[in-house]
Amino acid sequence: MVKTFILGESKQQVLEMLSEKSIHKIHLDQKVIALVRSNETFLAFQSECPHRGASLFQGRLTETNEIVCPMHEYRFDLKTGKLKVGSCGDLETYPTELTENGLKISIFPT
Ligand code: FES
């Protein structure tokens, strides 16, 4: 079952709270996910690399919204989660929506 969370209380607050070009750590119940802002779009994704589980909080963001894992430099598209360089499964991503009442993030609890 999908679980939806709302961060912040307004669009303005979310934009002030979450800077661009950073990988934010977000706690949603028991789960910790990563969140990146690109203008007014938010990209939410699993924080462990699907290859060997390295922390993607230490990863590097590219201009084209990809993340490069710090361990073996595999690369993932943050919009789709698709693996771009390397050989492992895709990154899990979570739908987000910026609304007047905050940022909605939907996850599938494991
Ligand atoms: S653990 Fe991320 S590329 Fe190997």
UniProtKB/TrEMBL annotation:
Keyword line: 2Fe-2S, Iron, Iron-sulfur, Metal-binding
CDD domains with a match to the protein in the record: Rieske
One Pfam family here: Rieske
Family designation: Belongs to the bacterial ring-hydroxylating dioxygenase ferredoxin component family.
Protein name: Rieske 2Fe-2S domain-containing protein
The species this protein was found in: Algoriphagus halophytocola
Reported cofactor(s): [2Fe-2S] cluster
Lineage of origin: Bacteria, Pseudomonadati, Bacteroidota, Cytophagia, Cytophagales
Rieske domain span: 28-105
Gene3D superfamilies attached to this UniProt entry: Rieske [2Fe-2S] iron-sulphur domain (2.102.10.10)
PROSITE patterns: RIESKE
